[in-house]
């Protein structure tokens, strides 16, 4: 049996303690699967949680983390149609992307946008799909809306800034630090708030004449969510997409009642089960935006396979801007 190099979680803990790089058997595609040579594997916070044993999916040890990638198809399993050996594709891994080869389910594997390089394409799937569904499906974004994006220089926040601009919204991006502020401006945010220096509530209310933001995109939670309720517009929408700050969003709902705003949750992964055709049409729309230069992932760090634990550590510590992508 042939072997390949891959990272494996051999014990639960922080990435630099949990991960071990070694040789593992090359995977073989089963029915409905494709085997790809990994061209780029994007780091996600879910990878950190899996190393810690805190993610909702808990594979038995040892396992290879990495949920998002760009790859070149090298073999097709039985009953796979619409894909060919040699094609460059993006999507989610079945059993881990932080290795030289990875398995993918054919039904949720998509052709990579030709306008994106391997690192950008690796970061084009989860974040952009999440932002698109949050803004278009849940919040019904329209031209002229004021969109408040928290963690605007982060992985999913940076996608929301670009998609908000593409939809014709005025985008207010909230970040932490001058480097991230510069990145958010580069993404196209109309107004950038460094939360360490300014109060985003005051900025939004001044910008809108105290009307508030039509849409709040919140991947942070905790106090960020609570403060956002102070600057959401009448009939505005707060979309909860995560709680990277560590505290799950919660608030007395009588406040939503008296201010007439809605709180919408987004679990993008459910669409993969319930409406895969909509996920595919979303990818087609995003590919068109990528071709127009309106949806280009912010890849701040391109690292070697050997650097994956340190990249995940930096991601977990909030030290990264945009996306970190491993290039095997």
TrEMBL record:
InterPro entries with a match to the protein in the record: ADH-like_C, ADH-like_N, ER, GroES-like_sf, NAD(P)-bd_dom_sf, Quin_OxRdtase/zeta-crystal_CS, Zn-ADH-like_protein
Molecular functions per Gene Ontology: oxidoreductase activity; zinc ion binding
SMART domains from the UniProt entry: PKS_ER (SM00829)
Pfam families, per the entry: ADH_N, ADH_zinc_N
SUPFAM superfamilies from the UniProt entry: GroES-like (SSF50129), NAD(P)-binding Rossmann-fold domains (SSF51735)
Domain Enoyl reductase (ER): 17-326
Name this polypeptide is given: NADPH2:quinone reductase
